[in-house]
Amino acid sequence: MRGLVAGNWKMNGDTAGALQMAVAVREAAPALACDLLICPPATLLHTLANALVGTTVAVGGQDCHANAKGAHTGDISAAMLHDAGAGWVILGHSERRADHGETDALVRAKTVTATSAGLSAIVCVGETESQRVAGEQIAVVGAQLAGSLQDGFEGVIAYEPVWAIGTGRTPTEADVAAMHAFIRGQLTQRFGAAGSAMRILYGGSVKPSNAAALLNLPEVGGALVGGASLQAADFLAIASAVRG
Ligand code: 13P
Q: How many angstroms separate the alpha carbon of residue 207 from the centre of ligand 1?
């Protein structure tokens, strides 16, 4: 399966920056051995999606509400993301779990809603630093997978150790490979052939200097990139590290 390099802009970016990024990725995408996805803030989705019409570069949201519509001031539905040009949505990011108290059950409800609206979901899992120190990472990620994915799930998983996000620190290659092998086993056990074909992204301080080592490990199907996705040169250098 072709790799996927996805940029999560989090609460960063503006119209001018989005248009600059569109120009850069439009030129670079055809020569890459992976697919590209950019998840800007919701305010920029429509602009970015329009600027990328006719390219293979996809755009996605960073969250959606669990309900299809209704009285939820300030929230955004999956259908609204789709209407703005998104084909994807990130769900259960650790910053959503921490800042907004999102539980596995809520993430699962969101994946159901997102799928019904025609979006592909990237569901994030990953242990905190204290859980890693306590040796609980397998149990934690196993529980997150079991609780956050609905039966028949067909999206993408992103393994993002919380302690590696925005810190410049990453797990060892052996630790990433071990966790991705565990996740693959869980997906195959639960979803059969579909589970053995699902992409499993690594996220957490991916940058041009470590991308080749991390992204070509077994069972690593691409990256979910935060800070380094804000500059086109860095984002594209990471994507270039994915071998075909
Ligand atoms: P950084 O790449 O900035 O560590 O962020 C990773 C992340 O949270 C992507 O979703």
A: 10
- Residue in the block written with tokens 């470590």: 210
Q: State the distance from the centre of ligand 1 to the C-alpha of 203, rounded, in angstroms.
A: 6
The pLDDT of 222-236, averaged and rounded, is 98
* Residue 55 bridge partners (DSSP): none
Distance of alpha carbon 118 from alpha carbon 67, whole angstroms: 14
Confidence of residue 243 (pLDDT cuts 50, 70, 90): confident
Q: What is the pTM of this model?
A: 0.98
Range of the domain at 146: 3-233
Domain CATH for 58: 3.20.20.70
The token duo for 86 is: 């998104």
Q: Which residues are catalytic?
A: 93, 160
Residues at CB less than 6 angstroms from ligand 1: 8, 93, 160, 165-166, 203-206, 224-228
Asked whether residue 184 is domain-assigned, the answer is yes
Q: Whose CA is nearest to atom 9 of ligand 1?
A: 226
Domain count, the chain: 1
